[in-house]
Hints:
Layout: E1 2-9, E2 12-19, H1 24-31, E3 50-53, E4 56-59, E5 72-74, E6 81-82, E7 88-89, H2 92-99, H3 109-122, H4 128-135, H5 146-159
Parallel strand pairs: 1-5
Antiparallel strand pairs: 1-2, 3-4, 3-5, 6-7
Helix pairs in contact: 2-5, 3-4
Amino acid sequence: MSIPLNITINNQSYSLEIEEDTTLLSLLRDTLHFTGPKEGCGNGECGACSVIVDGIPVRSCIILAAELEGKSITTIEGLTQTDEKGNVELSEIQKSFIDEGAVQCGFCTPGFVIATEALFNRNPNPGKEDIEEALSGHLCRCTGYKSIFSAVDKAAERKNK
Ligand code: FES
Ligand code: FES
C-alpha cells in the first residue's frame, strides 16, 4: 500500500507517495537518486548507508521511510556547497579525508564522513574516545583505519582553528 510522506532532504522539501516497506536507503538511492549513501551489508552492520536524521546519525538501510514523516535528512551530498556557476566545494571533513589518503575505493567513505559530521555537530571538540565511539561499527576494507582517524583529527583541527 502506498502512503504519503513529507520529508526534507538536504534542505529541500519533498512530498512523495511511498510504499510502506520502502527503506530510507531505497528512497534516497532508487527514488531520489542520492547515491552518496551506499548499500554494503543491508542489515545495519557496516555503516556505509549512514545519513543524519534530525541531527542523529542513522543507518538508512534498516529504517523505514514511512517512520520519517516531517523529519530532516542530511546525506553526504548535503555537506557540499555549490556556487551559482555550479562549482562544488567540498566540506572541510571531505577535504581532510582526501588530504590524509583516507579514501581508497571510497565505498565506506560517505558513512565515515556522515558519522564525523554528526559528531562535530554535537561535540565541536571531540577527544580520541569520542571519535572512536562515533566511528565504531563503520567498516572499511581498504585503509586499515589509520588514515581515517588522521582525517578526522585533521578536520577537527581545521574546525577549531
Ligand atoms: S548498508 Fe546499512 S549498515 Fe551496512
Ligand atoms: S576505502 Fe574502500 S572500504 Fe573503505
